[in-house]
User: Fold these one by one.
Assistant:
Number 1:
Amino acid sequence: MLDSGWEKRIRGGTLVPDMAIDLHGHSLSAAHVRLDRALAQARAQDVRILLVVTGKPRPRDGGMGSGQRGAIRSEIGHWLHGSAHADAIASVRVAHPRHGGDGALYIILRRKKG
């Protein structure tokens, strides 16, 4: 759970990612591997905010378009939940428009204990 200071920074667009990865345009399997590697790297480097560009989710109206549009975005929650890094994730939030809006996520990692 994030405190109100975090929420204010996310809404206001003042949050600055420490690291970013772009999964947009990759196959599901490649994106999954890249995400896992990025999380491992982020944890090793004590990163707090990882920006993950996923691409825009599918339109809710079921409009015609590429069958793959939004595939990474629809899977990322499952990947994060089942990840070896799940215990290190404090929160996942939709990015501010300046960082990609609906096409990106902030993964906020917990501080290391000790």
Number 2:
Amino acid sequence: MSSTGSTSYAEAPNKTLTAAGITFAYRELGPEEEVPVVFFVHLAGTLDNWDPRIVDAIAQHRHVIAFDQQGVGGSSGTVPRTLEEAADDAYAFITALGYTTIDVFSFSMGGMIAQDLIVKHPDLVRRLVLTGTGPRGGKDMDKVVGTTYWDVLRAALTRSDPKEFLFFNRDAVGKKAGKAFVSRLKERTVDRDEDIRLSAFQTQLRAIARFGRSAPSDLSVITGPTLIANGDNDRMVPSILSHDLHARIPGSELIIYPGSGHGGIFQYWEKFVPVAVRFLTADPAATIP
């Protein structure tokens, strides 16, 4: 395998690719390989919202690609009204890169988009990581809108990053983990991505609510190895929905981190990273040991 030349996510160059009339912004790092790990980001997330501790650890072993959805960050176009359309955008981007098989690492809204992608293209994804997310039609998922606006307001009043409220418990441990996470996101100091626009953020929120209120998808089409992880107190995408995903996806493995919220994998990154790396570097035909 050759290398992309990037040794860390903080140093990975910004790239662009035009597909289906949209110019997608993306970054890649790690060894070249036929099957990359494509990262699907959360609500309002840009290229700069991935925890470098997780990306760098996986990129030591795998080729990692992160991208901005249409209308977000450095990508052109307009944020789609539905997550199905966002999945179509992802498919256009992935196939324009020349890949016919990928592995997926997803968080929150990214996991919802990844599910829609697989339902439409079940042979595309070989291994799947779903974190802080839930299934289409999941109970109370549509309440994310109210929770999000309330926590954004609370963050504004305390001059904090909204992710400290949305992703972490407001106890001493959670507050410390939230500040550490936000600090890690600032490690990249050059060529940073553009923040999402308010109108685009609102469109994404409505798309998630629509996803939550719609009929469930048949997730039995997901037959490859699947790792599901979350905190035990997820206020954005209720933790029970991770159990729901586990029940719907045959052979999946579920990890719930205690005393943590939506960003459980970021609070417990030191425990989660070895699990994720092992999962994503296992024999393609094998399940998690």
Number 3:
Amino acid sequence: MYTAPAPTMLRGLPAEHRQRLMRTAREVSFPQGARLFEEGGRADRFWVVRTGTVDLDMRVPGRRAAVIEHLGHNELVGWSWLFSPHVWHLGAEAATPVRAWEFDAASVRSMCRDDVELGRTVAQWVGDVLAHRLHCARTRLLDLYAPYGAGSLL
């Protein structure tokens, strides 16, 4: 089954809004195996991957965390920062060494409140990413836990 690529900042935001956000970014790096955040933790920042791969995972009672999606170049890591109560819904781990741009969530939310058009485009971008992640999570969990031959996703 074909899954469209996740909306990146490059495709999801007009150049002017991308440039405004990038002025607030700081460069960070994570070694392989580093946890960026844990499910249930405070969502106070987000990242856009420059190089490397980040695995999104979700806790499954009685089992190891299930990897839901692999994120790479130009992809958004974290959407929970935009929506109250600003708590991570998944976990994230650097699958390889990662270089990323890090954004302070409170600053970006403030910029979005002050500029309605920026806020609209950021919300649309993050909403598109969220819809993509939900589809990936559903598909992955069915792959892992649905009985074999239980039927198609459609």
Number 4:
Amino acid sequence: MIDLYFWPTPNGLKLKLFLEETGLPHRLHLVDIGKGEQFEPDFLKISPNNRIPALVDQDPPGGGAPLSVFESGAMLLYLAEKTGRFLPADVHGRAQVLQWLFWQVAGLGPMAGQNGHFAVYAPDKVPYAIDRYVRETNRLYGVLDRQLARHAFVAGEEYSIADMACYPWIVPHAPHGQDLDDFPHLQRWFETIKARPATVRAYEGVAAPYAGRGNLSEEERRILFGQTAAAVR
């Protein structure tokens, strides 16, 4: 049994995609990040970076005590290795998937996240910051479009954890100032993933609570964007 600590952000939805694809038994524990539940002491024991998602595997490979994992890329890799699914066993295929998984967690996610922050959530609109991150998001879309011109999926011809990592960050393309018509190969891939039954189930009844809206309360804004080290001590 997997206990998934979750809120419907792009990073949270990556793990929901994996669990829906595999049918791995799991329980969802909602962590309302707008209320600051990610700073609760019990959650910090699982996720010391006070971010969702995080998981606890009650039955880790080899047995032993329950195992907690935080950071969405590490969680996808852990679950792929646990189940033997969505990560090739051969060295070349594995390397391709891991490259694109790390590309997402180091590039697409952070840059698109900053894009959304300055374009949607920041109380003061800073044209330089908005332009910087919209352009960088656009560049990364171009990288992905070029890759998908040569392959059916992000890391090759098979669906993998690299696709699961990227897809939720492409879902908010409009608030991030991107038009998928400009990226035909990315658009083809996006529609393919969107139509998968597991994707439909993962997104069923899910409304990302902050997607595309800047009208956060001052308390939500403080909790989401105003924390210092004092919050985790």
